[in-house]
Amino acid sequence: MPGAAIAQIRADRATIDGADLIAFAGCNYLGLAHDARVLEAVRDASHRFGLSSSASRETSGNTPAHEELERGLVDFIAGHEVRTRGEIAGVLVPDGYTANLAAAQGLSDRHPLALVDRRAHASLADAARCAGMRVRFFEHREADDLRRALLGEASRAVVMTDGVFTADGAIAPIADMLAVLRDGDTLLIDDCHGFAVLGGGRGTCAHAGVNAVSERSRIVLTTTLAKGLGGGGGIVIGDSDWIRGVRTGSHAYVCTTPVSPIVAAGTVAALGILRDEPERLERLAANARRLRCAMGRADSPVPICAHAVADRPAGEALAARLHAAGLFVPAMAYPGGPTPWYLRASVTSEHDPAEIDRLAPIFGELHD
Ligand SMILES: Cc1ncc(COP(=O)(O)O)c(C=O)c1O
C-alpha cells in the first residue's frame, strides 16, 4: 500500500485529506525541490527539451543539461574542477537505484563477492545479485565483523554500505571500514542521505575526513539527486578509468533513458544553490539537532530520526495522534528500519525551529 496521497507539499508543509500539516517527512532536506530559481530553470528547459529525451544518452538522448549536471556533480564532490586532470569522473543515470546497479555492473568482473551492511538500502544487495555477485551480509556498522568476514574469504569483495542510513540517520564508520579492506577490495558508499547534507554537502566521506579523490582506487560513490538536491537522477562517481568502463559496459547506464532533461536542468540550478548558499547546510544541521533533541535521541547533524513501534496498528495510532496535533510524521515498514514498523521523522533547512519543538511533548511522553 502506498502512503497517504499528498495533495500539496513543500519542504515543511503537507496537505493531506484537506488538513494542512507541518511535515516531518521525505528527504527534500534543503527545500530545493520548491525553490523558485529551480522551478524557473525547469520552465526554461521545458521550452528547449520537452519532457523527455526519449532515448539513451549513448544514442540520441544526451543533452547539455545532462552533461552540465554530470560535470558539476563531480567537481562539487571533488571540491575542485577535475575534468582536465582526469582523477575522478562520474556517470549520470536515471535514479539512485540504477546508480547502485550501474556501479555493481562496473565492479562485478573483478569482484565476485559483495559484503553488504545488514541494514543497508535494499538496492545495494539487489544490485549485487543482479550483477552476478555472491552476496553476504555483515553486522550493521560493525567494522570488526566486516574484518572477520573479509579474512574468511578468498575472493575480492565490494563492501557495500549506506553513508547515512535511510531509516534512522545512523552514519557509517567509513574510515574504520576502509582500514579493514584487503588489497583489491572496494568500498561502495551509497550516499543518498549524506550528499547535500554532511561534509559541506559533499557527503559522508568529507564528513569523516576521507578524501574520495585520493582514495579513488578503493572508493566508489553513488547517490540519488532526488533527496538533498530535491531534483532527479542518480550518479556513480569513481576513478576516471573505471568510470570509462561503466560508461561502455553497464547496461543500467547504456540501455536506459536518462532523467528528464528538464529535471536535469532544475537539478543543475539546485546544485548551484547548494554551492553558493552554505548557510542552508548550517540551518539544516541546527534543525537536525533540534529534531533529535525533541525526539529524545543522541545529538547528530543528520536530519532523520526513527521511532520504533511494536507493530502496524501502534504505528498508525501514533501517526494519527500526531496528525490530530497538526504534525505529519509517517508510519512505515520501509526496509532497513530499527523494527519492521516505525515512524520516520525528518526536517529540512526550511523548518521553523519553534515548529520542530512541537514534536517534543508527544515523543517526550512516549519515553517516560
Ligand atoms: C539509501 C538509498 N539508496 C538508493 C535509493 C534509491 O534512490 P532513487 O529513489 O533515486 O532510485 C534510496 C531512496 O529512494 C535510498 O534511500
Which topology of the largest domain does CATH recognise?
A: Aspartate Aminotransferase, domain 2
Mean pLDDT: 95
Q: What is the overall silhouette? A: globular
Give the C-alpha Rg: 20 Å
How many strands in all?
A: 14
CATH level-two architecture of the largest domain: 3-Layer(aba) Sandwich
**CATH superfamily grouping of the largest domain:** Type I PLP-dependent aspartate aminotransferase-like (Major domain)
Work out the helix count: 14
Cα(first) to Cα(last) distance is 32 Å
Q: Assign a percent range to the helix content.
A: 25-40%
Taken as a percent bin, the fraction of beta residues is 15-25%
Bound molecules: pyridoxal-5'-phosphate
Quaternary class: single chain
Q: How is the main sheet built?
A: 7 strands, mixed
Structural class: alpha/beta
| Number of discrete domains | 2
Secondary-structure blueprint:
Layout: E1 8-10, E2 13-16, E3 19-23, H1 36-49, H2 64-78, E4 88-93, H3 96-107, E5 113-117, H4 122-130, E6 134-138, H5 143-151, E7 157-162, H6 174-180, E8 186-190, H7 204-207, E9 219-224, E10 234-239, H8 240-249, H9 251-254, H10 261-276, H11 279-294, E11 304-308, H12 312-324, E12 327-328, E13 331-332, E14 342-346, H13 353-356, H14 360-367
Parallel strand pairs: 3-12, 5-6, 5-7, 7-8, 8-9
Antiparallel strand pairs: 1-2, 2-3, 4-10, 9-10, 11-14, 13-14
The protein binds pyridoxal-5'-phosphate.
